[in-house]
Design a protein that fits this description.
By secondary structure, this protein is of the alpha/beta class. 30% of the residues lie in helices and 28% in strands. The strands form six sheets. Strands 6-4-3-2-1-14-15 form a seven-stranded mixed beta sheet, with helices on one face.
Length: 468
C-alpha cells in the first residue's frame, strides 16, 4: 500500500497582509480536499511572517501575525530573522505565548538560560497510517544582532550534526524547515543523506517544481505569499520507504480573498491605528521630505544619529523618509508611516581614504537612484546622502552630474587617509555591496533594539518648533 501525505507552506510574507486573505482561501480549499479523502496534511510557515514595516505588526509587536496564523490553522512554524532580530528580547520571548501551533528552531538559544516555553528544537508527527516524520527548524545566524539582544544562533551544520543521528533512529522521514537561504539548503542536501525534504525561505527564491539534490527535494515559494508551496511525499508501506518526493508552488494572486480574514485585518488595522495614535509632537510648519535634496528634517535626524551613537560623523540616505509631515499633531503612526524600515543605527570604523570613497560613491547618480528592495529598506530609492560631522564640497561635470571635490571634517580639518574614523549610518549598508567599504569594515557596532524611526521621534521632539 502507498500512502501520500501533504505539506502546505508559506515563507517570507513580511506582513504583506493584502495577500493573506488569498492564502487563507487556498489553504481552506486544499485542506478540505485532503481531509475529505482522508489524507494526512499539515500547514507550516518558514519564517519572516512578521515585518515591523506594517502598522499592524508594529502596534502589536507581532502578536497579530500569530493570531492570523492561528486563525488560518497552521500546525508548525519556524522563525526568520525578522521575528528574531527586530524585537527586544522580551518581545520575542513572548511572541508565541498564544500560538495554537508548534514552533521549532533548533539553533536559537536565549543567553540568559531562560528558554521560551514555546521553543522546540525538533517536532515529531505521525501520518494516519503510522509513518513517523521528524522536522527540525533552523534560522539564519545574524549573531551580530542576536547577541546584543541576549540570544545566540548556533551554526546550522553543528546543530544538524547534533540532532540528525537521533532523528534517523526515531523517525522514517526527515524534513528541514530552513530559514537559511538557497545556498545553505543545497549544502544541507549534499551533506546529509537522511534528509528527505528541505522547505526553505530567507533568500526569497522561487522553485516552481522543486530542486533535487542527493536524496532531498528542495523547495521555496518566493516572497510575500504570491505563491504557496506544496510538498507531496509518497510512502510505500510494503517497502517501508519513500518512493516519491514532489514539490510544487501555486500562484494564488488570482484567487478570491477570504471574507472573514479581510474583516479580521480591517479590525486589526483600526486597532493598530488607535494604538499608534498617541501624539509625539505638534509642529507649526510643514517638514518637507525630498529624496534628492538636503532637507532640515533629514539633516537633524543625521545629527541626532551622530550625537546618539557618539560617532565622529554620520551619514543617512534621504530615501529613509517616505513622506513629508504636515502642520499639526504628529503621531507614532505618522512616524511609522514615513519611516517604516526595520533598520537600526550602526557605527563602523573606516580609514580616511575609505571614508572619502564612501562619500564619493554615495553622491553618484547610480547610488541615489537605486530602487533598493531588501536589507531592511522598505522605501522606493536610496536618495541623496546627508552628512553630520563632515563638510562635503561638490561640483558638477559638463554633463550635469555631481561629483565630490573635497571632504573635510566638521572643523575644516583635512581627513587623514590612514586614520580610523567612527562613522554612524543605517545598518542597511553593512550588508551586500551597496557601500563595500562599510560592509567589509572589521568593526560594526549595532544599536538595538532602537530603529531609526525611534531616533526620528527623538529628533522631532527636540529639534522642531511645537506647541502644546
Amino acid at each position: 500500500m502507498e500512502e501520500k501525505f501533504y505539506f502546505y507552506y508559506t515563507n517570507d510574507l513580511h506582513s504583506d497582509f493584502k495577500q493573506w486573505p488569498r492564502v487563507v482561501t487556498y489553504l481552506k480549499e486544499a485542506r478540505a480536499l485532503r481531509n475529505q479523502r482522508g489524507e494526512s496534511n499539515w500547514t507550516i510557515d518558514i519564517g519572516d511572517h512578521v515585518d515591523r514595516s506594517h502598522s499592524i505588526t508594529e502596534a502589536t509587536m507581532g502578536k497579530a501575525n500569530v493570531k492570523l496564523l492561528n486563525d488560518a490553522g497552521y500546525d508548525y512554524v519556524t522563525i526568520g530573522n525578522n521575528e528574531g532580530i527586530t524585537m527586544s528580547h522580551q518581545d520575542l520571548y513572548h511572541l508565541y505565548d498564544e500560538a495554537a501551533f508548534e514552533v521549532t528552531c533548533a539553533n536559537l538559544h536565549s543567553t540568559d538560560n531562560m528558554q521560551p516555553p514555546w521553543l522546540r528544537p525538533t517536532v515529531n508527527i505521525e501520518t494516519k497510517h503510522g509513518v513517523k516524520i521528524g522536522m527540525i527548524g533552523l534560522t539564519a545566524p545574524f549573531n551580530a544582532f542576536y547577541e546584543l539582544l541576549n540570544w545566540y544562533v548556533s551554526p546550522e551544520f553543528e546543530v544538524l550534526d547534533k540532532y540528525m543521528k537521533d532523528l534517523e533512529q526515531s523517525v522514517d522521514i526527515i524534513i528541514v524547515m530552513s530559514h537559511l537561504g538557497i545556498t545553505i539548503d543545497q549544502e544541507i542536501a549534499r551533506r546529509y543523506d537522511a534528509v528527505d525534504a528541505i522547505i526553505g525561505g530567507h533568500t526569497h527564491h522561487l522553485l516552481r517544481s522543486g530542486e533535487y539534490i542527493n536524496n532531498a527535494v528542495i523547495t521555496a515559494a518566493g516572497k510575500h505569499c504570491a505563491y504557496i508551496g506544496e510538498v507531496i511525499l509518497t510512502w510505500d508501506h510494503k517497502q517501508k520507504k519513500l518512493v516519491k518526493k514532489e514539490a510544487y508552488t501555486a500562484d494564488i494572486t488570482h484567487l478570491e480573498k477570504d471574507a472573514e480574514t479581510e474583516q479580521t485585518l480591517h479590525v486589526m488595522l483600526n486597532e493598530a491605528n488607535s494604538l499608534l495614535g498617541e501624539t509625539v509632537v505638534q509642529i507649526d510648519s510643514p517638514l518637507t521630505v525630498n529624496w534628492y535634496k538636503d532637507t532640515p528634517i533629514m539633516q537633524e535626524l543625521t545629527n541626532t544619529v551622530k550625537e546618539w551613537t557618539k560617532a565622529d560623523a554620520a551619514m543617512l540616505n534621504n530615501g529613509l523618509l517616505l513622506e513629508s509631515l504636515p502642520v499639526g499633531a504628529i503621531t507614532y503612526g505618522d512616524i511609522h508611516r514615513i519611516c517604516p524600515h526595520p533598520i537600526n543605527p550602526v557605527v563602523v570604523d573606516l580609514k580616511g581614504n575609505e571614508l572619502i570613497e564612501v562619500v564619493r560613491v554615495s553622491l553618484t547618480k547610480e547610488f541615489m537612484q537605486l530602487a533598493l528592495k531588501g536589507f531592511g529598506f522598505r522605501g522606493k530609492v536610496l536618495g541623496r546622502m546627508m552628512f553630520a560631522g563632515l563638510q562635503v564640497e561638490t561640483g558638477f561635470h559638463k554633463n550635469g552630474e555631481e561629483y565630490v571635490k573635497q571632504v573635510l571634517l566638521e572643523n575644516g580639518e583635512e581627513i587623514d587617509p590612514d586614520r580610523t574614523y567612527y562613522i554612524a549610518t543605517a545598518d542597511t549598508f553593512t550588508f551586500g555591496r551597496l557601500l563595500p567599504e562599510v560592509a567589509k569594515s572589521d568593526s560594526k557596532q549595532y544599536f538595538v533594539p532602537e530603529f531609526l524611526r525611534d531616533l526620528l521621534a527623538k529628533t522631532l521632539r527636540a529639534k522642531f518648533p511645537y506647541y502644546s
